[in-house]
């Protein structure tokens, strides 16, 4: 019965379902984007999860948090994610942490891929650094909605793959000291960030597709740079223009190849 359930995705490869079943996926942030990723991974058949989110469901989350119901208000988002997974995979192994991942990062070391669905540049930098240290592919997603009246709102977003040994979020220009400094100067003054369910769904779907290709190699595309730019107003996703100036062979100067594993303390 289990094999029949996944028969329509057998094009992913002869042993693809065994690979998918054995993989461990980390997801940091289970709100708008992360909830889409959880749902899709469960449908595909991923059985092992490491989840982090310290927030509870608020009424304003119900416009985009997949799996949440009216009666879930004030419940931990982590519980909604677990329910979505177990509704499809009763025997799934779920490490669920209702806290910031920085408070207990050790479980992330078991992951084969990490999804970052977080709001700030600083947390993205920390997540990528953790992933690079333990040679784990990191996939970042995000959506931004800006409005400068009298112009209509502008919806944009990104999906970026940060593979160990290849250009990182800083190499592709998504992270920079200027962005981090500007964000730090606005700390605590962000207010409510506009979000909509369909935009989150678009970037999450691309991210899941990238992850499945990494572990099954069904496209035979091999190692590559991925930096996708989403234009919600035009309903298009395109490779970011910065990729025209980068190569998969460019060395990443931000994460040297020898700076991996646990740090070693030496006596002075």
What does this structure look like?
- The chain is of the alpha/beta class.
- It has a single domain (14-144, 153-245), classed as NAD(P)-binding Rossmann-like Domain (Rossmann fold, 3-Layer(aba) Sandwich).
- 29% of the residues lie in helices and 18% in strands.
- The chain has helices at 2-5, 16-22, 32-44, 77-88, 121-133, 177-185, 197-216; strands at residues 24-28, 48-52, 93-97, 113-116, 138-146, 154-162, 226-231, 236-239.
- The protein has an eight-stranded mixed beta sheet, with helices on both faces.
- Helix 5 links the parallel strand 4 and strand 5 (138-146).
- Helix 3 runs parallel beside helix 4 and helix 3 (32-44) packs across helix 7.
- The radius of gyration is 19 Å and the shape is globular.
- The termini are far apart.
- The mean pLDDT is 93.
Provide a concise account of the structure shown.
With 268 residues, the protein is of the alpha/beta class.
Major beta-sheet overview: 8 strands, mixed
Kindly report the name of the CATH homologous superfamily.
NAD(P)-binding Rossmann-like Domain
**CATH topology assignment:** Rossmann fold
Which sequence of SSEs, written as H and E, runs from N to C? HHEHEHEEHEEHHEE
Tally of separate domains: 1
- Give the terminus-to-terminus CA distance: 61 Å
Helix/strand-derived category reads: alpha/beta
Are there runs of 5+ residues with pLDDT below 50, and where?
A: none
> Total number of helical segments?
7
Number of strands: 8
Widest β-sheet, arrangement of strands: 3-2-1-4-5-6-7-8
Helix share of residues?
25-40%
Work out the radius of gyration.
19 Å
What is the CATH architecture annotation? 3-Layer(aba) Sandwich
- Return the average pLDDT rounded to an integer: 93
Instruction: Give the overall shape.
Output: globular
Top-tier CATH class: Alpha Beta
* Fraction in beta strands: 15-25%
């Amino acid at each position: 019965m289990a094999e029949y359930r996944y028969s329509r995705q057998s094009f992913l490869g002869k042993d693809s379902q065994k690979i998918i079943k054995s993989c461990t996926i980390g997801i940091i942030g289970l709100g708008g984007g992360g909830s889409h990723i959880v749902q899709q991974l469960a449908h595909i058949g991923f059985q092992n999860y490491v989840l982090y989110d310290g927030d509870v469901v608020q009424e304003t989350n119900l416009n985009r948090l997949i799996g949440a119901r009216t009666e879930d208000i004030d419940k931990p988002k982590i519980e909604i994610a677990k329910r979505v997974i177990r509704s499809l995979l009763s025997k799934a192994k779920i490490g669920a942490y209702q806290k910031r991942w920085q408070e207990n990062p050790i479980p992330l070391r078991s992951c084969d891929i990490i999804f970052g669905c977080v709001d700030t540049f600083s947390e993205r930098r920390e997540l990528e650094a953790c992933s690079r240290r333990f040679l784990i592919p990191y996939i970042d997603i995000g959506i931004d909605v800006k409005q400068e009246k009298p112009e209509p709102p502008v919806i944009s977003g990104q999906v970026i793959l940060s593979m160990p040994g290849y250009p990182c979020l800083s190499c592709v220009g998504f992270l920079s000291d200027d962005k981090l400094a500007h964000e730090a100067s606005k700390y605590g003054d962000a207010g409510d960030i506009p979000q909509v369910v369909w935009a989150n769904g678009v970037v999450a779907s691309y991210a899941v597709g990238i992850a499945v290709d990494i572990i099954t190699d069904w496209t035979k595309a091999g190692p590559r740079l991925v930096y996708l730019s989403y234009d919600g107003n035009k309903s298009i996703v395109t490779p970011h223009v910065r990729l025209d100036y980068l190569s998969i062979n460019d060395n990443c100067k931000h994460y040297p190849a020898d700076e991996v594993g646990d740090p070693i303390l030496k006596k002075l």
